[in-house]
What does this fold into?
Amino acid sequence: MRSFKKGEQIRIFYGPRPNSQLLNYSGFVFKENLHDSVKLLIILSKEDPLYSEKFKLFNADLLEVELLKSEGLNSVLPVFRLLSMNKQQLDNVTEENLAEVCSKEVSPENEESAKKNAVKFLEETLQLYPTTI
It folds into this structure.
């Protein structure tokens, strides 16, 4: 900590927080907040023929992911890469290598499917929140 002179402006840094936290805890938001994010819940479909394999890897059928404004679609792609994997691809994934495998393109087909599924999920989620903007 340092001393301040009389009349000197004091600035407070609230940390890298999304607008939801700033609003809840401080009462304001930033229009262009690079740290803004939204938490999304993704439910594993029990209709998926590979449900049990995916459930074992996530150890859950309800997944919480954070969509970061600064990273856009890339912040949720790892989850959608795994959700878009075929049986052969899933057989190469373990709990130990899950993060590493999903952090990069698995295959061109998987990447295309993951992006398509992520965009579809986000569009469907946005439709749940109508706006007049």
User: Anything to note?
Assistant: The chain has a mean pLDDT of 91. The first helix runs from residue 19 to 26. The two ends are 44 Å apart (CA to CA).
